Please model this.
Amino acid sequence: MPDIKEACFSSLKSGQSFTTVKMVRDEDVVKFSEVTGDVNPIHLDEAYAGKSVFGERIAHGMISAGYISAIFGTEFPGPGSIYLSQSLKFKAPVKIGATVETTVTITGLNEKRKQVTLDCICRVADKVVLTGEARLMVPDECK
Model:
């Protein structure tokens, strides 16, 4: 396991943000279906999905939400952060092979509770596909 610096509340500032870019691969969709049991044919069956409003298979919305979670737990704020809540609005489908840009931005800091509120947004090209707000608890001191 790589040496990852643990997050700390005292290092965070309102307005700070972090962005990742990930491509949604076919194997990601298949693995997500296997892990979660969500085998909706809109995600897995070309013939079925081709007759849908989307005209093709789409990725599970929660894959994009997972990109948000990955940022929080590994990058920003990072290890030691604890997810408390997350709201999500799915604005548009994500096609398999699409590249998703995920950005989280600090919008609030609760010093007393050591909690951080963040705006979350996922885009494919210039199109917003997911928005939301998260609240995390972050360790007090830097280690």
About this structure: The radius of gyration is 17 Å. The helical segments are 26-36, 41-44, 46-50, 61-74. The domain at 9-137 is CATH 3.10.129.10 (Thiol Ester Dehydrase; Chain A). Strands lie at 17-23, 82-90, 99-110, 115-124, 127-137.
